[in-house]
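Purpose: get a first structural picture of the assembly so the mutagenesis plan has something to point at.
Setup: two entries, given in the order below. No constraints added.
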Amino acid sequence: MKTFVGIDLGSTTTKAVLLDENSQVIGRGITNSRSNYATAARVASEEAHVDGRFTLFRRALNAGGGQSDELDTFLAALERAFRLEQFLEQLDDLEATCRGQVKGDRFAGLESGVQEAIGVVFTNLRGEAPELYAPGAKRKSDFFRDIAGSRYHTQAEEVARQAKLPYDLLLNVYDKSIIEVENRPPAGELSEKFHRALARVLAIDSVVRTGSTDVPQTIVDTLGIGLDETYLVGTGYGRVTLPFSKEHIRSEILCHGLGAHMMYPNTRTVLDIGGQDTKGIQVDENGIVANFQMNDRCAAGCGRYLGYIADEMNMGLHELGPLAMKSDRPARINSTCTVFAGAELRDRLSLGEKREDILAGLHRAIILRAISIISRSGGVTNEFTFTGGVAKNEAAVRELRKLIKENYGEVTININPESIYTGALGAAEFARRVYEGGAKMEHAS
Amino acid sequence: MTATQIVTPKTAAKDVEKDVSMRKQKTMMAAHYDRITSAPETGKKICCTFVPGNLNELIMCFDLLNNLPEVNAIQSGLRRASGNFILEAEKIGHSEDVCTYVKSDIGMAAKGNIAPNGKKFPDPDVLLLSYTGCFTFMKWFELLREQYKCETIMLHTPYMGDGKITPNMIQYMVKQLKEEVIPKLERISGVKFDIDRLREYLKNSVKAEDNLVRVLQTAKSKPSPIDAYFGGIYYIGPIFGAFRGTQDAIDYYRFLREEVEERLAAGQGPVTPDGDMGEEKYRLVVEGPPNYTNFRQFWKMFYDEGAVVVASSYTKVGGVYDFGFRHDPDNPLETLAEYCLGVYTNRSLPMRIDMLTNYVNEYEADGLLINSIKSCNSFSAGQLLIMREVEKRTGKPAAFIESDLVDPRYFSAANIKNRLESYFQMVEQKRAGSRAAA
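Result (structure tokens, whole complex):
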């Protein structure tokens, strides 16, 4: 079948969306941008293809009229098994890379000991991997670097202690290897991993037939459907470094506008707060950008600002919003300069102000900046769609709602749970339209 | 997955291509700088003045050499020297927000005041402020007066707040010319004012002005044979600088007109530093000054995308000829007053909106692009408002970018390119939208 890929290369994460010919989203994929956009683009795209397979499985299985909750359980198990297969494959790569790093003066006389220790660490990692993907298991992140990293550190510390080897030698080989592994485009055929995952599920799960559907056969048949990458469009800050030719590149402003329009066709104003930029965009009834403004010279008030504040407070990024929500007396923070905000934060903490009040003030400062950008782009016209990573932050959303109401009255505010994919969605739709336009031109000639 | 296509970077930059007129102008400018720097030997006196509403014809009547600090700052920007000059001025105590022309000039003086020809600029004998719409000009000359301990003459130009020039305004300015400006210039230069000499210079001005207007208006054709912003900046150099009223200017503009008309007849587009521009894809009107520190890179962002500027307000910064104004030798002092009053930034916001709207319509542009300069209030105040109004009246999309005149720290190439590309794609999309609707 024909598919259309949109890739949004952000400063922090890279997103991909896979559309079918009817502009329906088949799959979404995300990965960290890891300062290697070419790999990030491939990984995100592959993730979207994986997600796309599940959409096709679901479509095929639902067509068979099976019990939906049974199917959901089965598909969830299949996904966990697939992720496990993927994880194991990357572990193998990581192990081989780590082993290759055991060389040089540092390891003199200890090579065989370190090699043996690496072997033990990876045997343990493989052994515990199924637990990571067991039903109900919580993972801190879905990125290989985060999952493998935290488990490797724990295992290596223990193994080094028992083998009486310096722990830093094991850390050293990991640190040298993980970037290499991450920057290597994913190896291995997706469909092979799916087959292995299916076998894994069938070995423990008896649900093979529901309604009139032969589940395993449906999965195998669906895997046979080729997902042709008919056309691809890239966007986002990293687009200039993309290995795509010019006709495959669109500005992220246009992509965000179109993406927001596809999610909410009545959207007229879009605010996107990403890692390093804030965009205020006005779109018309067709999702075409009519005007835009974005931050210039300074990325204060963007996602990175929150990341910096989280580091300063020794908190996780996702913990900031909930804590700020506890405030009933937000502090008045005037400085939106990221670095100054850190200074202001320490100053206020030392004066005894509550963390939640300071955080609430910082969230308000971000949104005030965004409101200024929106107003310069032409204000807010119903409906208003908020996208980007910061749209997931409830405290930021609360301040935004307040300020929009104060400045523009009652306005419908849309926030999509998949809003991080807005740019990639727009890019995919551009890809589809380019193809459609091309096809039409062929008819005309 | 199908493999993605790898695109290798373009080949290394070639030598800059120039029109013959550009080379001719370069020679003129070099000769002028030589005249200025050799003043201590020739005994000539120097008058510093500003580009908007400059009174070159009058200055020449007193055998004074016109040295324009703004033009020197632009030269420093183009030669990538302004960055250090600005740092020098900041060291002296000028804040980050001060106009960067001022800081480049002050810093250049602090660093030995070396002209583009490598010789030292002589100190000015008089500072003539003939346009006061830019408040910074006044402060600038206040600083220079302190530095050079020379005389200052101020001709106050009333603002065109009501959108028109009244007889009172002209009388007020002529009175200042007669009672203040001319007597002082006579005393400083030691040359008696001769109104017939002024008339002769003004006759010369008109000849050059007619040809300049013709050149700028060729951009109404499709494709436009000129870029009326990046190329236009070269075209306005002599007339807004020290050449208006001279035979040199007459020759230059006649030559330029012939050159441009040849391109027009041949159906050619503008000449860019990379040679002939490719297909004209977008026609833009640009408001605001350009960036000079990355001038070529900035221009390239346009011509690489097939964008040509067909009209710009910046090429009217010295004086506006669009509505028929020409220097009038029959009313020499009145015409000087009218010239100063008509300067682009002396026009009210509604007048500027009208002008830009007309440009978009008359030059059949795809829209308006504003390059907003943070440290230039004369231009930047009200620009967002202007943008929205022009957008509303023309129905064409507008965009806003930000940079600086000669401070390299405020030129963020990735950011500007991002906005420009977005804008071009926006124009493209709008066209596709209207084609679909048609």
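Residues 383 and 412 of chain A are 5 Å apart (CA to CA).
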